[in-house]
């Protein structure tokens, strides 16, 4: 296709159509400090889009806004921005999240565009592409947030004059309510956890609302046995396959909370269990941080292992107990004829009597994560009439607004089930 050129009125730039059917424009923006003429080029899908970009450049020049190098691409800028986010500027886990979305989502889709030419149209098309990949609303929201942060950095550096994400379509998290255990589910879970090595860890979590990393990082000297309370001052973190002790999530996370009798009893049993393990291992025991909960050798616990092994096993066992209770049969006999069978909806189980049973949704203790015990504790407090400010302080939230947003609607609903 021959290059189609159209000159606009004097001073408004030149726009022409390129061989690929798109439009490209050029405009003169005066001279630099060395007397060299400043010319900028912009591209777009329509003549109008290019003309709007030229007009923005001219208006910026008239307002005295610095004229940035229009050759900088989205890829170049985000690579530079990402370098400023490396630890210790941000937490390792946060940086990993930024890097993953920048390198796997943002740069492949938008990286080729020149930074100054990136528009809300490009971003809306980017969102549609993410939707076609069937990403969750929360993931798309996270990508949007990172894209916006990077472009805000470009605005601060005067590489662009405005953040196109703010003009593009909005994306929300579509948050779901926090998962809480009902009284019956608590009963089945605790019964299923009986005799498990981390049984008392789950009891402590249910009775204190501690974050998973907080109870994993709890040292023995943080417990005031006489005063029936403990102080939360550190947490176990797991990043890039490594576990380590580190600071709490927020400044408000450092707090002292009361311990009910159930929690004190659990800690007492855990002290006895740990003494026995330490005695059995002798010099091989490795609890150098004096932690309450460790693995069988005294090392810090790995959250991923607990979820993949302990929690999965206990939740399955809780389902067996629920089904046995529903059918008025012995759970041990039910387990015996279904060894290791995973519980899923419509899964057919063998019965000790010789019959079969199809698993129902209500039989399964699903969507249980380590934070579920924290959520359940908060819901129980709200249901019992504890004021929201006290609940917020006990959970270590920065403000009661966070507590209301996460837990305010679920306490009575879930506990009344």
Tell me the count of domains. Answer: 3
Count of separate DSSP helical elements: 15
Strand order of the largest sheet: 1-2-3-4
Approximately how much helix is present in the residues? 40-55%
What's the level 1 CATH class of the largest domain? Mainly Alpha
Distance between the termini: 69 Å
Order of helices and strands: EEEEHHHHHHHHEEEEEHHHEEHHHH
Strand content range: 5-15%
The CATH level-2 architecture of the largest domain is identified as: Orthogonal Bundle
Average pLDDT for all residues: 89
Structural notes for this entry:
The protein is an alpha+beta fold. It folds into three domains: 4-61; 74-166, Orthogonal Bundle (DNA polymerase, domain 1), CATH 1.10.150.130; 183-363, hpI Integrase, Chain A (Orthogonal Bundle). It is built from 15 helices and eleven strands. The protein has a four-stranded antiparallel beta sheet. A hairpin with a 5-residue loop joins strand 2 and strand 3. Helix 3 (92-110) crosses helix 5 (137-156) and helix 7 packs across helix 12. The radius of gyration is 30 Å and the shape is elongated. The termini are far apart. Mean pLDDT is 89; it is low at 411-417.
């Amino acid at each position: 296709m021959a290059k189609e050129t159209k000159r606009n009125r004097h001073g408004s730039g030149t726009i022409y159509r390129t061989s690929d059917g798109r439009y490209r424009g050029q405009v003169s923006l005066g001279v630099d400090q060395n007397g060299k003429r400043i010319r900028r080029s912009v591209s777009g899908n329509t003549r109008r889009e290019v003309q709007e970009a030229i007009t923005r450049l001219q208006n910026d020049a008239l307002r005295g806004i610095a004229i940035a190098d229009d050759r900088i691409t989205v890829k170049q800028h985000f690579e530079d921005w990402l370098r400023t986010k490396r630890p210790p500027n941000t937490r390792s886990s946060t940086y990993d999240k930024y890097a993953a979305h920048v390198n796997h989502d943002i740069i492949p889709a938008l990286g080729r565009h020149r930074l100054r030419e990136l528009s809300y149209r490009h971003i809306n098309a980017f969102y549609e592409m993410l939707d076609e990949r069937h990403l969750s609303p929360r993931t798309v929201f996270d990508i949007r947030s990172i894209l916006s942060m990077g472009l805000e950095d470009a605005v601060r550096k005067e590489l662009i004059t405005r953040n196109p994400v703010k003009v593009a379509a909005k994306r929300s998290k579509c948050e779901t309510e926090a998962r809480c255990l009902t009284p019956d589910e608590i009963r089945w879970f605790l019964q299923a956890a009986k005799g498990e090595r981390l049984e008392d860890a789950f009891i402590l979590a249910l009775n204190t609302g501690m974050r998973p990393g907080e109870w994993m990082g709890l040292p023995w000297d943080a417990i005031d046995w006489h005063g029936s309370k403990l102080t939360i001052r550190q947490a176990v973190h797991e990043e890039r396959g490594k576990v380590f002790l580190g600071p709490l999530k927020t400044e408000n996370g450092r707090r002292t909370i009361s311990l009910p009798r159930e929690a004190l009893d659990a800690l007492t049993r855990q002290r006895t269990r740990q003494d026995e393990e330490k005695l059995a291992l002798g010099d091989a025991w490795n609890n150098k941080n004096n932690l309450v909960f460790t693995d069988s050798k005294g090392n810090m616990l790995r959250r991923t292992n607990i979820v993949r092994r302990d929690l999965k096993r206990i939740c399955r066992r809780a389902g067996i107990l629920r089904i046995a209770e529903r059918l008025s049969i012995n759970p041990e006999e039910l387990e015996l004829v279904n060894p290791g069978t995973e519980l899923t909806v419509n899964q057919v189980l063998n019965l000790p009597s010789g019959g079969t049973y199809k698993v129902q949704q209500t039989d399964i203790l699903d969507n249980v994560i380590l934070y579920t015990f924290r959520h359940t504790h908060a819901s129980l407090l709200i249901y019992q009439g504890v004021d929201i400010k006290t609940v917020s302080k006990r959970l270590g939230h920065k403000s009661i607004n966070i507590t209301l947003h996460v837990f305010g609607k679920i306490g009575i609903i879930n506990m009344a089930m």
